[in-house]
Structures are given as structure tokens and as C-alpha cells.
Amino acid sequence: MRWGEMRGSGNVEDRESAGPAGGFGGGLKLGGVGLIAVLAISWFLGLNPLDVLMSLQGEDSSSVPTQSAPPGSSAPGARDETKEFIARVLGDTEDTWSTIFKEMGHEYRPPKLVLFRGAVDSACGLASSAVGPFYCASDGRVYLDRSFLEDLSKRFGAPGEFARAYVIAHEVGHHVQNQLGIMEKVAQRRGGTSEARSHALSVLVELQADCFAGVWGHSAKRRNLLDPGDVEAGLAAAAAIGDDRLQQQSRGRVAPESFTHGSSAQRVRWFRAGLDSGDVSQCNTFETARP
Ligand SMILES: [Zn+2]
């Protein structure tokens, strides 16, 4: 992937240097609201809340030998390649979506991307890096712990820069949904509906974000910014982070009723739909009989 030719975005907000519990001011204090947030996030992802709490506390600065500096800012003036990669991919999504929005007669207002370590406070509550990257519609920000990108290759066997870019483009896809008013409509539909139906709606939101990530991929491909094998790596990432695959890895069984992102096959299919067409109208997961 020729990311060095992409424009770097100025919308990366670095909260990594704020320390492992960035924004909490040193030691981790989990108040009532924070605890509820952890429990809610754990339930949402089917994780054991204790694991999440442990991973939060494990990052507590008091239990970690004093580091001279967090990774990425170790040597002043040294090039932080991961951060540069993130900024350039984000910048490229900004250019792509600005063009597409203009064609639709809208103006694209790009999201901020918050880089954090360990845990972060957002308008959507407290989150540990165990939840993976996420988008908070209330503050219009993408939250990303760089270790997730690094883990992607280690844990899911999905190496390749394009696989990492896909993760960023997926979160940006949620921002696009927010800008297009789709999230608001979904929230309205969700009101008064059953829990099962609400879950199904979440899956459709996720699959559409995958399709939007594909739309960005289509644009990058057309501008000759992809190398042979990049698309395959992106598809492998889509498959690797399907709910069925993640559940199998974490609990050894698959429970479709708790899927929040869709199965591996669904994720690959919708990413492909965006990638092949480059057309937002091909991403209507809500009007498809069998997503
Ligand atoms: Zn998502």
C-alpha cells in the first residue's frame, strides 16, 4: 500500500502521552459511572467484565515500571511511523468522502481521531483498549489504541497495511453514517423494538460501515495507491474480525444471537460490495432481504 503518497490529516488527537489511563490523571479510579460503562461495554462485546477491569487495572501506572516515555514518542524528533500511517490513511478518507459528499450535494465534516493507550474517556463513556477501536457518535470521534493495529497481525493472522487501513476506514464509515443521519434513524427505529431486533439493527449498521470502508478502498485502488495483495489482506481482516471468528477464539463457541458486527462471510461480502462498486448506494444493508 502506497500510503506515503496520501495526504496526512491534521485531525489526529494524541492522548497517548497522557499516560496509560489517558485523561484520568494517573492512577485509575473507577467510579460508579465508569464501572457501569465497563459492564455495558463488556456485555456488548460478550467479554467477562472482570477481564476488562483487570486489563484496565493492569495498565495502571503504579503497577508498571516507570517508563521514560510511551512508545511512539521515545526519541524526540524520531519518526513515528504508525502515527504517520494513521494520519495519512485518515487524510485519504477525508479527501475521498469530501469528494463523494460534494457529488451528493453535502459537505463532509471529517471526524477527529483520538489515539490513546490503555483506557480513554469519551462522550460515550469510559473504554479500555480491550473493546477495540470504536466511534462515538455523541462527540464525533474515532478512538484507536495503536496496539489493536499491531495485534491485528499477531492475533488474527491478518498482516498487511491495508488490513490496518481497513480498520480505520471502518470507523470512519460510522462517522459517514452519522453525517448522513443514518445513526439517528437507526436509534429511532430501535426505540420500542425487541432486543433481538435491536441486535439485528446493530449488525446492519456494522455491515454498512464495512461497505463504506470498501468504498474508500475503491477510491484508493483507482488512484493506484494499492499494491497487489492489498485487497486480499483487507478481506482477510474483514473475515478475521467477524463476530463468529472472535467468539470462537474467546469462548470456543458461536452464539449468533449476540453478534454485533456480523459473521465473517457477511463482513467480507459487504466490504466487497463497496470495494467493487465504489458506490454508496450499493451499501444499503437496511433494505436487503438477506444481508
Ligand atoms: Zn463498527
Bound molecules: zinc ion
Kindly report how far apart the N and C termini lie.
Answer: 29 Å
Mean pLDDT: 78
- Could you list the spans in which at least 5 consecutive residues all have pLDDT below 50? 21-29, 48-70
**What is the H/E order?**
EHHHEEEEEHHHHHHH
Strand pairing plus helix content: what structural class?
A: alpha/beta
| Total of helices | 10
Radius of gyration computed on alpha carbons: 19 Å
The largest sheet has its strands arranged as 1-2-6-5
**Strand share of the residues?**
5-15%
Principal-axis shape: globular
Helix % is 40-55%
Q: Give the strand tally.
A: 6
Biggest β-sheet description: 4 strands, mixed
How would you describe this protein?
By secondary structure, the chain is α/β, with parallel strands linked by helices. It has helices at residues 32-45, 49-58, 81-103, 146-156, 161-179, 182-190, 195-222, 230-240, 243-251, 264-277; strands spanning 12-14, 112-116, 119-122, 125-128, 134-136, 141-145. The strands form two sheets. It has a four-stranded mixed β-sheet with strand order 1-2-6-5. A two-stranded antiparallel sheet has the order 3-4. Helix 3 packs across helix 5 and helix 6 packs antiparallel against helix 7. The protein binds zinc ion. Zinc ion binds at residues 170, 174, 206, 209.
